[in-house]
Amino acid sequence: MAERETLLEFPCDFPIKALGRMSSGFEARALAIVKRHAPDFDAARMHSNASRRGNYLAVTFVVRATSREQLDALYRELSACDDLMMVF
């Protein structure tokens, strides 16, 4: 039996959490990146939470992932964003 490259079965809903600075416009830039890789992304499936002191913003995007390649490209572009501190 060949070993699979991923345990995910596509298509599937996949949550991506990104953390950035509140004042940087991070949320809008992260949303634009997500929409480039998942054009049918529904903004209603995005949730934001500010840190206790309001300095940071955690944004969760639940995308309908169609392939591992799509997710890899999305993670690479989010990780390259200067405003992003962490993506998981």
Description:
The protein has helices at 26-37, 68-80, and strands at residues 12-21, 46-50, 56-65, 84-87. By secondary structure, the protein is α+β, with helices and mostly antiparallel strands. It has one domain: Alpha-Beta Plaits (2-Layer Sandwich). The protein is elongated and about 40 Å long. The model has no long low-confidence stretch (mean pLDDT 92).
Query: Structurally, how many domains make up the residues?
Result: 1
**DSSP summary: helix tally:** 2
Q: Main β-sheet: number of strands, strand sense, barrel status?
A: 4 strands, antiparallel
- As a whole number of angstroms, the C-alpha radius of gyration is 14 Å
Assign a percent range to the helix content: 25-40%
For the record, the CATH architecture stands as 2-Layer Sandwich
Uncertain segments: none
The percentage of residues in β strands lies in 25-35%
Secondary-structure element series: EHEEHE
Q: Indicate the structural class.
A: alpha+beta
Cα separation of the termini:
30 Å
Strands of the largest sheet, in order across it? Answer: 2-3-1-4
- Could you say what the CATH topology is called? Alpha-Beta Plaits
CATH class: Alpha Beta
Q: What is the assigned CATH homologous superfamily?
A: ACT domain
Using DSSP, what is the number of strands?
4
> So what's the overall shape?
elongated
Arithmetic mean of pLDDT: 92
